[in-house]
């Protein structure tokens, strides 16, 4: 069986002469959560944009189930869902209509019951017919999360999902990610909340200046960094120190 | 720049932007509208005064009108969202800034009062009093406006909007009594109420400033509302780019799209349908064009029915060409790019929406031609030509337009 997501030596960015990411190489298997870790400006969002197919790599390739976006655009898109760092909502649609539009776009069947239960999980049932202009940042983020989980794709791409979420929201999100992982989905999550990442991610990709600096399980990172008992945050801080020298 | 100059600076900025909009508005029909209204008033004023029965309660009506105008007050603070961070620490040093704001608001609203009083001047001299008394009334109203601006500004110190409204109603009652005596020419009573107002000023409103702090959040959102209402007004005449179209629920219209089957091919029918129904830009334009087109068709002389057919076709065409920009409406959203829905499906949805709206517009104009006692022959010709144009537009022109748009984007 081919790897779910394979980022093969991808270089790219907004200017061909100044690539933001250079020869980035990693993968996400089915049934695992991979943490994409890096400082601001390390290239996390650019990497994610390449995976989403919003940018085209100048070099290398990205495959989902062995196929690139050029091979089959709609299947590629159908295979994943995305939770953006900043919630992006349609001003014209109510919460419920967002869910319904998602159901339409991904051709979901029997979505209504799931949508209702998502509304309950994230305590948003009361706001079902509200417009986004009445939502707080956390509520908007919850709409994004609900839409992504409604799709139940093979791959989740999650960009810094915890900011602005209330504790119930964070816990529900983590529980749901574990549930999806256990049912065979792969999850790529970029975050700065390292204690959470350490607890929930199976493997890590540490980006620095657009290149993969370290990658692997926590144990492998410790060996590579030569810091036997260190936590993820210590390795991360050590990594940024390199920069100052 | 010191805090004292800041207000002047902001007022200047606001006016330089406004001036540009006002010039644009003047060039695009505002002046015609105002001129027309003034002309109509001028023509009918005298006959209106003659017609107005002597039993008409002029004093009472004027009292309510001016009490309302006095009570409805605003204060231009020119506060901006960022002030919550940058000006908040300066709150104690803001006296001069806020005084400028109060003076400015008093002045601007006095101009409006003066205009209305000037318009009602002939009525006043006809039914109430002498010209001299009108002049005194004017001065008294200006002073009362000043009192109201200060009182309103003090009310805003209260945290709860419900409290503010209670005070506003009380203020309305005070104003009503005051203005009533002014128009009754009962100057001693005016003086008595005036004294009460002065006592309130020092005894009630002033102490509020000591007791409560500025309510920044509220002031900033009030300021935003005021700016927005100006831009919304301007938007009726010229295109204001940064104005965010208000979203309206419009249940009856937007619920029509709830009947769609939840399947992939309907994704954009649903999205664009809801957008059409709720975003101010599209449905509003369709309605406006429907009204203006209908008026023009209705007003066309009978021997120029051919011209009316052209007008009908033209307005249907404009409706379509305005609506098609809905294709770009969500261009800043990442979602349409991520949906596993072929671009072709999206274009088809736009096409069918445009077609349906244009067909509805054609039928509407045809109905209008029936009302205007056209011969059925001309009505049918008009309908046929409009539908022919719709087909040509949707089937030939739109695909080209999509291609160009995509090309321009990449």
Automatic annotation (TrEMBL), chain A:
Q: Which PROSITE patterns match?
A: ABC_TRANSPORTER_2
Q: Which domain of life is it from?
A: Bacteria
In this chain the ABC transporter domain maps to: 5-234
Keyword set, alphabetical order: ATP-binding, Nucleotide-binding, Transport
What Gene Ontology terms describe what this protein does at the molecular function level? ATP binding
Q: Which Pfam families match?
A: ABC_tran
Q: Which PANTHER family match?
A: ABC TRANSPORTER ATP-BINDING PROTEIN ALBC-RELATED, ABC-TYPE TRANSPORTER ATP-BINDING PROTEIN ECSA
The protein's name is ABC-2 type transport system ATP-binding protein
Organism lineage reads as: Bacteria, Bacillati, Bacillota, Bacilli, Bacillales
From TrEMBL, chain B:
The superkingdom listed in its UniProt entry is Bacteria
The answer to whether UniProt assigns keyword Transmembrane to this entry is: yes
What is the protein name given in its UniProt record? Answer: ABC-2 type transport system permease protein
Would the keyword Electron transport be found if you checked this record's keyword annotation? no
Keyword annotations from UniProtKB, A to Z: Membrane, Transmembrane, Transmembrane helix
List the InterPro entries hit by this protein, alphabetically. Answer: EcsB_ABC
Residues spanning the membrane = 21-45, 51-70, 104-125, 131-153, 187-205, 282-300, 306-327, 377-396
